[in-house]
Each structure stands twice: as structure tokens, then as C-alpha cells.
């Protein structure tokens, strides 16, 4: 799966209020992507009000008339253009995780998702270089979950998935300030045990990429050695569990 590792800045130095943009072609089925336009100075946008703000504009790819064939073996209807517009180069570059090199592995395969209970572990604060660590942590957590008399007998009812979404930063945020991670998990102020997600919609979208009927219990696992978590729509925990 291809992903742009860096975006090359095009154009001369501009004033502080200039707006920047980049465009990517994304396959919504596989999340394969290609950089179409690297970061460059663009027309101002009313929704971009300060250097750290950004918006994403998505349009479906309608035809191949321009002979643009960057994403091979793909359904045309699954391709879309994503334009990232920001108030600074950093604001645009910081959103490159919107089309990440997502790696999905099925840790426990008990049958079709339609008639199984599917648990989806999504990692937060695991950099690209920590992919192996993430899958090792999830395998350990899965083994611990189904060890013992309580849950072992129910294992045939479950599928367990692990989704690695590379983060820019390693670890999770503290003091109420998320880091630059996939789902921006953070601890709020002096509260150490509570871990909160800052990008719930993105977590929902990533969970759906596992497949139809396969997102029964979405769980966000933070790359952090200190115990903590949260209940609710997402089961939030750390790798220390």
C-alpha cells in the first residue's frame, strides 16, 4: 500500500495569512493513495481562520478521461480526491494521517463477522516504526483476555482484529493536551486513570474499514505503560492492561 512519506513544498515564501493546500487521490476500500498536488500556496478559504486550522474537502473521482491511473485494480466509484487546506504548511502536513498506511490483521478467526462478535483493537500513539510492537501488544492482550475459565469457552464466538494506524508521535497526551497521534488519546489534567479520545469520528471511520459487520466492539489501545482507560462507545485502554 502506497502512502506519501513527505510532501514537497512548491512556490515561494508567502505572507503569514496565506493558505496552503495539498491534494491526494484515495481508494476508500483499500486506503491506497497517491499524492496529486504537493503543498503549495492556494486561494484563501473562509473556514481557515488561523495558522493551525485546516479543512478537508472530498470529491468523488468521476472519470478516467484524463488518463490518470494512479490507483490500479480499484473500483472507480471507490476513488475520491481529498484536498487538505490549512493556514500553514504544518497544518496541511499534520493531516497526512488522514490517509494512513493502515495495516489490518485478524488475530482470532472464529468465522464470518455476520454471525460472530467482532472486537477491533485500534492502536494510538504507535509510530510506523512501532508496528511490530503494536501487534505484539495486541496479541498479548488477546491472550490475557481469553486465558482462564471465564472467557476461554466463549472464544469460538469471537473474532479479534488489530488495526495499526501510524501516529506521528509515540505515546498519548497528558495534561489535557493530545499528541499528534491517530486518535489523539490523552489524560485530562491531573487525572491519570481516565484516558479520552479526541477524534471519535475518525475512530468510527477506521473501524469500518475492517469490513461489514466487523465493528461490534471498537477499542482504542494507547501506547502507554501506565494503567488507564474509559468506557462508553469505545473501550479505551492502554497497553499496560
UniProtKB/TrEMBL annotation:
InterPro entries assigned to the protein according to its UniProt record, in alphabetical order: MetalloPept_cat_dom_sf (IPR024079), Peptidase_M64_IgA (IPR019026)
Keywords assigned by UniProt, alphabetized: Signal
Residue runs in coiled coils: none
Any Pfam family matching the protein: Peptidase_M64
GO molecular function: metallopeptidase activity
Signal peptide: 1-15
Protein name: Uncharacterized protein
Originating organism: Aphanomyces astaci
High-level lineage: Eukaryota, Sar, Stramenopiles, Oomycota, Saprolegniomycetes
